[in-house]
Amino acid sequence: MNWPARRDTAMNNPRERILSRLKAAPKAAAPLRPDWTPPTYDAAGRKAKFKAMLEASHADVHEVSPHDWPQRLKTILANKGVGNVVYAPATPAGRQLAESWAGSGPELVAYDRAVEEFKDVLVSKADAGLTTTKGGIAQTGSLVLWPTPDEPRLMSLLPPIHVALVEEASLTDSLAETIRAQGWAGAMPTNAVLVSGPSKTADIEQTLAYGVHGPKELIVLLIGSDSP
Amino acid sequence: MAAEAGKMEFGAKAHTALNDPKLRANFRRAMDGLMTKRAIQFADEAEWTSLRARGAAARANALAKLAELLEQLEANCLRNGIQVHWAETTQEANSIVLGILEAAGARTVIKGKSMVTEEMHLNAHLEKHGITPVESDLGEYIIQLAGEAPSHIVMPCIHKNKAEIAELFHDKIEGQAYTENVDELTAAARAALRGAFAGADAGISGVNFAVAETGTLVLIENEGNGRLSTTLPPLHIAVTGIEKVLEKLDDVPPLLSLLPRSATGQPITTYVNMISSPRKDGEKDGPKAVHLVLLDNGRSRVHGDTELRDTLRCIRCAACMNHCPVYTRVGGHTYTFTYPGPIGKLLTPQIEGLDCAGDQPHASTLCRACADVCPVQIPIPDLLVRLRTESVRPTSGQAVKGAGSSATAAETLGWKGWTLLYASPLVYRIGTRMLGWFGNLMPSSAPMLKQWTSVRTKPKFAAKSLHELAREKGYCDE
Description:
The complex is a heterodimer. Chain A is built from six helices and twelve strands. Chain A is an alpha/beta fold. Chain A has one domain: Rossmann fold, CATH 3.40.50. Chain A has a six-stranded parallel beta sheet. In chain A, strand 10 (200-201) and strand 11 form a beta hairpin. Chain B has three domains: 1-41 and 318-407, no CATH class; 66-300, NagB/RpiA/CoA transferase-like (Rossmann fold), CATH 3.40.50; 409-472, no CATH class. Chain B is 50% helix and 10% strand. Chain B contains 23 helices and ten strands. In chain B, a hairpin with a 4-residue loop joins strand 5 and strand 6. In chain B, helix 2 (21-41) crosses helix 12 (252-264), helix 3 packs across helix 12 (252-264) and helix 20 (409-423) packs across helix 21 (425-438). The longest helix of chain B is centred in the first third of the chain and has 21 residues, at 21-41.
């Protein structure tokens, strides 16, 4: 693509004119950012808050163990009459799912190629999508989605049901804590998303309706450290 | 809308709106709901106070370093593979967007909700050049079907009730039966727009926060249409005003805690979408090219006045309009221009000029409800008074476009006389004595008095001034 040269030296381009006006403006001292402390919780309170906030946003939260979650998921999806699940075959969670999925149950569909060859499945055929998360935030009941080449962006967005795996050990109190603890400022990925419930709208008479463009349902599998 | 079309129309339009019971009922219901939900979110006064102080400081800090942060944002975006464009005017921004689309051979565009593209009237520009923009936010989709402009910056179709929307969908969406069931209406929009998402050649979005430190664009939304618009099509163009920049990623959490709670009373929006680059090698989805268009459109001029600069702190939560006794009664379309309510009547005259929208700063009771709820502490009423002053200042100032445009020789003379009256005890004494003697002889229809008495009872002048009465009682003013 051929753009007008942006680095013109003279004042004849918008960039230079805008910046020179801003630089010529009278200086005001940059204010100090006053102290502000987001809420903190103890371990039990953190988990309880996380669940309560998600459930208030219309998500289903199931407590599962590291070993039984594929079976639990199979039952949950079968009860909903789900026909297929899009999953990421190259992630550890994807491998665990595939290994324990033998027999009946919803069909597993691997998101293993570029969207250009997979769009049709995602847009109109997929019933559910399974993703992992980088963490969970108690204050707002938010999942931290951190898509990777192995686990692409659209699998949490286009299917009508989004299933998310959250490690209980990865729960944090607040977004501010998460950004610092996980060192986001030095390592932002192509896309990171906080998800705090199923897709919703209140544009018509402030009446809540779910699943307007994204998933209608959000199912969170909260993986504890021990087998229950 | 051309600037001239909306020139000083507020009064006439307000009169019409006030006499529209359906419009008033739609706004009243919506505003009451939003105020209640916000109040629940900020019930803890101490938390609100410290949070908004932090949020206001984050925004003020960004504005204090705006030039260097924009350069840093640009450098980091370029490093991440996001192409950056600068536009001084909305026309330039429209041309840049059109140029990117044409170079990519794009014919259809799916749009996430963006007020800055409304400010540009981008849709009309694209349509004129044969490109079809489809709004995907439910509220924006509804008003696009109706051929209207947003009446609220967060809830664009708040002026319509569900019967009107049911009628519109029945009329405009093929095969759609008339239904007032909100779930069914929502499902109809989902079905109608799925194909548009899948077939779009490009996605266009706004930006809520642009983080200079990381070159990250933060977009918040509830529906998922914003994520789809920025993920599914092969090309993404983000458009933002230059003021939306933040210095650090650490500035995002407090503002993210303020914005949705102030706007809709939600603790957080369903989605917080953070975009830092186009699709990288090996990644399976996401746009292959991402462009960021930085629009000035008068903002750098506003920035040039250290008092009015606070206008640019705005994070577009709409709490000021939700709580405004004027907006609540007249609705968003009365303001003609893109941004209605208190922030609109503060921003619009500065962007368009006081000669064009100088009536808007007067559409306020200065009750301070807007200042009380503003999450970034913009002193809206004080700045409205400043604009009122600027519009009648006899000499044109530098910072405010159209300053002095409402100044008249008679009024200037009047204020000079007033100043003299109050600066000189002798003149003051003669003046009040004259009013005591002759004031009541002035008819209500006298020039200048006429405007005052059209909505008020003419004051009755006492025969003796308070000074005289006090002196007669033996009080001494020396």
